[in-house]
Specification:
The chain has one domain (10-125). It has four helices and no strands. 86% of the residues lie in helices and 0% in strands.
């Protein structure tokens, strides 16, 4: 049985339509969470706390962008390996991505936790 596949954009278009809405909705949910957090902090805590939350938004966006970058890139590599029936390669890529994600999470925490007191003093004085 000889199957011949022709390269068309039909599958790509179908998958793009399938994943576009969930991607947009997840981004909107993240932004809505930030807005609600700002409303709660601004109304129930103080304006200084609101300033601190607002100043942390870029850090949250950088973290989100890196997470999406790593997850989307790795899912493509894993899909290619799985398509080649290379389960060991797919498992290796997945394990490497998990290790890299944990490493960057710990690094991010190590860099930001010691500076959190200095940042809070800065925002109180502003």
């Amino acid at each position: 049985m000889n199957l011949t596949y022709h390269k068309t954009g039909t599958l790509v278009k179908q998958k793009f339509k399938e994943f576009f809405l969930p991607t947009v909705l997840s981004s909107m949910a993240a932004q809505l969470g930030t807005i609600i957090n700002g409303i709660i902090v601004g109304n129930f805590i103080s304006s200084h706390a609101m300033a601190a939350v607002s100043a942390c938004i870029p850090l949250n966006q950088i973290t989100y962008a890196l997470a999406v970058l790593i997850s989307m890139g790795s899912s493509g590599l894993i899909a290619i390996a799985a398509g080649k029936r290379d389960n060991d390669g797919a498992n290796y890529i997945f394990s490497t991505v998990v290790a890299v994600s944990v490493f960057f999470g710990v690094l991010w925490a190590v860099l930001l936790i010691p500076s959190s007191y200095a940042l809070s003093i800065f925002f109180v004085l502003c």
